Amino acid sequence: MNQINTISGIIKYCEKTGCNVKINESLKDYTSFKIGGTANIVVFPNNKESMADLIKNIKENNINYILLGNGSNVLICENNFDGVVIITSQMNNIKVDGETIYADCGVSLNKLAVAARENSLSGLEFAYGIPGTLGGAVYMNAGAYGGQTSDVVDSSEYMDTKTCEIKTINAEQHEFAYRESFYSKNKDYIILSSVLKLKHGVKSDIKNLMNENISKRRTKQPLEYPSAGSVFKRGDGYYASQLIDDCGLKGFTVGGAQVSEKHAGFIINKSGASFSDVVNLIEHIKSVIFDKTGINIECEIKIIKF
Fold first, then answer.
1. Could you confirm whether 78 is annotated as catalytic?
2. Is 230 a catalytic residue?
3. What are the structural domains, with CATH classification, of the chain?
4. Phi, then psi, of 257 in degrees rounded to 5
5. What are 172-194's pLDDT values in tens digits?
């Protein structure tokens, strides 16, 4: 067993397995909000085997850890994290076989959509421009423009961190719902890889639809500012962004955080926003909407405190 119960032990482990490692690293650069504290150590596993082995060891040694993909759907506090932050961005292997794609959890959705296009495979056009990873997309059943992750997932492989067993589930076992899955309801399970089933299509048609989707994003979303995408979930019979707009909250600002004037569903880091700026703005939005409509809107982004 690899003993990695100290920082020096983790560094030696990473050197042995070829994983990149950084010490006392700011997390700002690893989140799309550009907000976050520091971590004692940040590790970038290079494949699912090194990831599983790393997690097994840190669990056995009772080391605190946080798992991040592209950091695009999270808000991280600004304290120092006494533990290991695992970032999956270097777990980016893709294999295409006919209409099937095998991919690691850290593969970006953009890279995945482009790989599908280059192989004339249709079904991932919706994912082009979503600033996340495959693991995050499966976890929350990410979707856009009429498509969602559940449409294409055939199976996925995960690690049960309680037993350190590696298991596989089929499409039906994912229990996909709106922004939910089997994984979002089971916090001890970590996605390692997924198998996607697509359909052959016309490459030019696939490319045109991808370009159309990215054009919509650029026109309608405040991509020029750091954000975590849509902050609130869509509800039964309403869109949170419309409620926010109807309540006159577009442009409302707390510190450096602002409700986007371009898209009311986004909170942007307009000018050096802090964690508390964003949290206070979220709470203000929820309070105003409840007072005016009686509706409790629910956060879509994950707020990480330590």
1. no
2. yes
3. 7-87 (3.30.43.10), 94-205 (3.30.465.10), 222-289+300-304 (3.90.78.10)
4. -100, 140
5. 999 999 999 999 999 999 999 99
